[in-house]
Design goal:
This protein has 258 residues and is of the alpha/beta class. It has eight helices and eight strands; from the N terminus they run αβαβαβαββααβαβαβ. β2, α3 and β3 form a beta-alpha-beta unit.
Length: 258
């Protein structure tokens, strides 16, 4: 068991080093990364498409990289915004890692990119432990997922710089208890901001872009209590049988503009 734990810590330490290097490299060229985490079906692709459109309207140089186990559906949707988009097919890997992200950005990321939105694999377990060199980490949950989601996935919500609630247009229909959700978020991540959104109705659209731009311009981001604690990574892949790396994971250019 000790050897397994040591291996897990070594993998995370290697990723942290890669993330630190990538963050410094992107900062030097004026690019900030926004790491989006959520369960499948949370509505993050729909919201991200609206945010990309808003960024284009505001002439913010923005790009998006979306990761999925299979299909290029999300990239095709995001490309409708007119922003450069790249799809990464992970071939079964349940998360992105900093080294993988750096490899996919090499030779692709437009030089003038101010914001790079990374739509992580739909999963609130695996991606939570991996820093991607992001400036802003955002965890999303839809009103259909239940108010106790933050308690069930404390690492994903506990390490977030921002929490976004999606699909608020159906909150009443599914009897979403906003106060209970906020209380549960506060329990795992005291002081983090919670933003309510509806991509369908436009509620809160632009808020994510505003927070991302502020962070990119050097405004302080929320400091999660969990991130200040040693050994805060709450998930280990060996416990779930997931591979640590899949070098065959591929990236394809879905749509690009000069």
């Amino acid at each position: 068991m000790c050897r397994v734990t040591d291996l897990q810590q070594a993998v995370l330490a290697k990723n942290d080093a890669s993330a630190h290097e990538l963050r410094a490299h992107l900062a030097a060229r004026g690019t900030a990364v926004v790491n989006l985490l959520s369960s499948p079906g949370s509505g993050k692709t729909a919201l991200l498409e609206r945010e990309l459109l808003r960024a284009r309207e505001r002439s913010v140089p923005v790009t998006a990289l979306t990761a999925d186990l299979a299909t290029e559906n999300d990239a095709a949707r995001l490309a409708r915004s007119g922003a450069p988009v790249k799809q990464v097919l992970t071939d079964g890997l349940c998360h992105l890692e900093a080294g993988m992200l750096a490899g996919h950005l090499d030779g692709w990321l437009p030089d003038d990119t101010r914001l790079l939105f990374v739509e992580n694999v739909g999963n609130l377990v695996c991606p939570a432990s991996y820093d991607l060199g992001e400036t802003l980490r955002v965890t999303l949950a839809s009103v259909t997922e239940g108010e106790d989601k933050p308690l069930k996935y404390p690492t994903a919500f506990g390490l977030a710089h921002l929490v976004v609630v999606t699909k608020t247009d159906i909150a009443e229909a599914v009897e979403f208890d906003e106060a209970a959700f906020r209380a549960n978020v506060e329990q795992v991540n005291p002081g983090v901001e919670v933003v309510l959104t509806s991509a369908r109705r436009g509620q809160g659209v632009g808020a994510l872009l505003d927070r991302a731009m502020a962070a990119a311009d050097g405004a302080p981001v929320h400091s999660p209590v969990m991130a200040r604690q040693p050994h805060h990574h709450g998930h280990t892949h060996a416990d779930n049988g997931h591979p640590h790396a899949r070098p065959e994971a591929t990236g394809t250019m879905a749509h690009t503009h000069s």
